[in-house]
């Protein structure tokens, strides 16, 4: 099965979904369904819309099921400018407070209308108050589970966490772009994405390379980057246009496995693993496994050799939430 990992596709789909939501709130007929239909197709395509446009032009985009000439032109506009004027105009047509409610996962235009009509909810604060007072659970079409889901969605929003399925394709896209440089020896997505957490806050990517400046130049100049927070030979950090922070760290090849363990986490798991290493006569850090007495480097290039030297079986990243030995 083809892998979906195209960042342009995810962004275009997100914009079309948002346009559909706003149009539905404005009681516009048929257009919301058309935008959602196109968005669903684009979000699951294996080929990037940018590549389709480069290869086949506007006609190639028009041939995407559910797209047509009007939406194809909007996709071209996004590829050239990073935004769609019609989308910006629609966003400006709704109040900022309603816009915030639309950003709450699981809260679509129909539910927002119902909450406003039945409980007078117009803002995030109104929604939080209604949840605390358990008013939403009593509404027809909602119930206790919906109320609990909305509470969790608000928590995610405050912590700026995103669903894994939203962030993973973006992380994979960055990895693919960096690999094209042909100077990358090793590269992995780390952090909570690698641990396959349901929600993640940001993107952490680990790289081993002999040409860090080339890697960092490519990373910080990607068209998806909105703001460069830091740029250096060992670490660069950016804010992407969708608001997600992405960090790239460059480490020595001989320390790559140790760094991958460290930056994969979780924090609790790393602490316990370091404590275990100390009991075995070692010191474990992101730079490698060292002999505690002499300070001599032992191993560090791969996770597998570190676990083996510690007398442990390899632990899958998704199992590294708590100490399991």
Can you tell me about this structure?
This protein folds into four domains: 1-94, DNA polymerase, domain 1, CATH 1.10.150; 97-158, DNA polymerase, domain 1; 170-250, Beta Polymerase, domain 2 (2-Layer Sandwich); 257-319, DNA polymerase, thumb domain (Beta Polymerase, domain 3, 2-Layer Sandwich), CATH 3.30.210. 52% of the residues lie in helices and 14% in strands. It is built from 15 helices and ten strands. A five-stranded mixed beta sheet has the order 2-4-7-6-5, with helices on both faces. A hairpin with a 2-residue loop joins strand 8 and strand 9 (288-291). The two termini are 36 Å apart.
How would the blueprint of this fold be written?
Blueprint: H1 7-25, H2 31-43, H3 49-62, H4 68-81, H5 85-93, H6 96-102, H7 109-119, H8 124-132, H9 143-158, E1 162-163, H10 164-179, E2 184-189, H11 191-194, E3 199-200, E4 203-209, H12 212-220, E5 225-231, E6 235-240, E7 245-250, H13 256-264, H14 267-279, E8 282-285, E9 288-291, E10 297-299, H15 303-309
Parallel strand pairs: 4-7
Antiparallel strand pairs: 1-3, 2-4, 5-6, 6-7, 8-9, 9-10
Helix pairs in contact: 1-2, 1-5, 3-4, 13-15
């Amino acid at each position: 099965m083809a892998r979906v990992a195209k960042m342009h596709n995810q962004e275009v789909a997100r914009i079309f979904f948002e346009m559909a939501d706003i149009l539905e709130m404005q009681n516009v007929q048929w257009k919301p369904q058309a935008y959602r239909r196109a968005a669903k197709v684009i979000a699951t395509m294996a080929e990037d819309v940018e590549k389709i446009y480069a290869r086949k032009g506007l006609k190639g985009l028009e041939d995407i099921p559910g797209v047509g000439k009007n939406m194809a032109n909007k996709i071209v506009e996004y590829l050239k400018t990073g935004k769609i004027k019609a989308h910006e105009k629609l966003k400006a047509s709704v109040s900022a407070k309603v816009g915030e409610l639309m950003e709450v996962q699981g809260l679509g235009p129909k539910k927002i209308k119902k909450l406003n009509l039945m409980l007078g909810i117009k803002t995030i604060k109104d929604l939080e108050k209604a949840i605390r007072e358990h008013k939403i659970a009593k509404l027809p079409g909602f119930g206790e589970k919906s109320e609990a889901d909305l509470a969790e969605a608000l928590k995610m929003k405050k912590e700026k966490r995103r669903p894994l399925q939203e962030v993973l394709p973006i992380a994979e896209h960055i990895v693919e772009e960096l690999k094209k440089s042909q100077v990358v020896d090793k590269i992995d997505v780390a952090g909570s994405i690698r641990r396959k957490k349901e929600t993640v806050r940001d993107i952490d990517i680990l790289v081993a390379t002999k040409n860090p400046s080339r890697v960092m130049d490519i990373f910080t100049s990607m068209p998806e980057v909105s703001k460069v927070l830091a740029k250096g030979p060992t670490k660069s950090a950016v804010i992407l246009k969708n608001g997600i922070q992405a960090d790239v760290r460059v480490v020595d090849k001989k320390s790559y496995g140790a760094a991958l363990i460290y930056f994969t986490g979780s924090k609790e798991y790393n602490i316990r693993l370091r404590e275990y290493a100390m009991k075995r006569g070692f010191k474990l850090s992101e730079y490698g496994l060292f002999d505690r007495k002499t300070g001599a480097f032992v191993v560090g290039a791969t996770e597998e050799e570190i676990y083996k030297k510690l007398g442990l079986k390899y632990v899958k990243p998704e199992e590294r939430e708590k100490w399991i030995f």
